[in-house]
Amino acid sequence: MESVKDTAEKIRNLEVKGARNAAIAAVKALQTFAYQTKAIDKKSFLVELEQAQRLLFDARETEPLLRNALHYLVSQVKQSGAQKISEICALLIVNADNFLTELDASRTCAAEFGSELIQNGMTIFTHCHSSTVSKMLIHAKQAGKNFKVICTETRPTFQGRVTARELIEKGIETTFIIDSATQAFILKADFIVVGADAITFEGNVVNKIGTCGLAILAHAAHKPFYIVSELLKFDSTTFYSGLEGVEQRSPVEIWIDAPKNLDVRNPAFDVTPSKYIYGLICEKGIISPKNIFNVIQQFYPWLYT
Ligand code: RUB
Q1: pLDDT tens digit string along 57-75?
Q2: Of 136, 131, 260, 255, nearest to 197 (Cα)?
């Protein structure tokens, strides 16, 4: 369980950043758990597995890709007829490998669809660090397209610096701005693209704080605003009820020696209503976010089992 606790802590303290990286780290932690377990029968293994799942779920509350991945792996173990610990662990390890391979393929497909939108001479605006957005931009560059990127620094923990570094290293001309300069630069963009942490039943998108304001500015400036994301960021709990709370992080990330009694708030994410989203670029193509539930039912019915 130590490796699971260690991974959960890395996800919580943002050593592991981004929805996808958090999900990958959690899947790998379950694999390590399967290699190291001392459980003597299926019943005790399942008890420990559920504890591990809970620890990883609780690391960050707004990460459905992580939850969906673990839900899939744990239910596969529960449903299997395997009884021997060695067989159960082997099943978990193989399923985890397969899941990661498919996740990688989904991101590649989404990146390829997204890169088709990019034409020579365009300027693309992005916010925060999304490994999926980076993959899309780098794919377009590798296809020989010449374009520019504007990227926000993304307070409070500056994930935009990760994006800027990645893009510069790949030879993509990038302009880096503070978050509050967004309005001044959005008119220079041909379109805006950001990642997602969660997609709700109504097609609203949860992403790094500042995303909703960016979408509203894009709408006012008549610029298309896209999300690029794997469909498995769909939050199936929003089918039954609205989105539960958004992660509130420590005020210390914003101001380490803030005056005593000052009310410092640090929400990690905000929710962009689907009406501001021009298209959701995913592994199946570019869809309307409002159509997300139909697409999920078609391709990922196990989310409802
Ligand atoms: C990262 C963030 C990213 C999404 C998508 O926030 O909001 O846009 O997680 O990333 P944080 P990806 O740094 O707080 O995790 O496309 O890599 O899943």
Answers
A1: 999 888 899 999 999 999 9
A2: 131
Residue 305 has pLDDT above 70, yes or no: no
Whose Cα sits closest to atom 15 in ligand 1? 18
11 lines ligand 1 (CB under 6 A): no
Cis preceding linkage at 273, omega within 30: no
Tens-digit pLDDT profile for residues 72-130: 999 998 888 888 888 999 999 999 999 999 999 999 999 999 999 999 999 999 999 99
Between the CA atoms of 66, 133, 231 and 242, what dihedral angle is there, to the nearest 10 degrees? 70
Q: Does ligand 1 lie within 6 Å of residue 195's CB atom?
A: yes
Asked if 128 is an active-site residue, the reply is yes
Pocket lining: 134 vs ligand 1, CB cutoff 6 Å: no
97 is an active site residue: no
Q: Enter the pTM of the model.
A: 0.93
| Backbone angle region of 158, left / alpha / beta, with phi > 0 → left and psi within -120 to 50 → alpha | left
Interacting residues of 220 by C-beta distance below 8 A, sequence separation 6+: none
The residue among 177, 243, 176, 179 whose CA lies nearest residue 205 is: 243
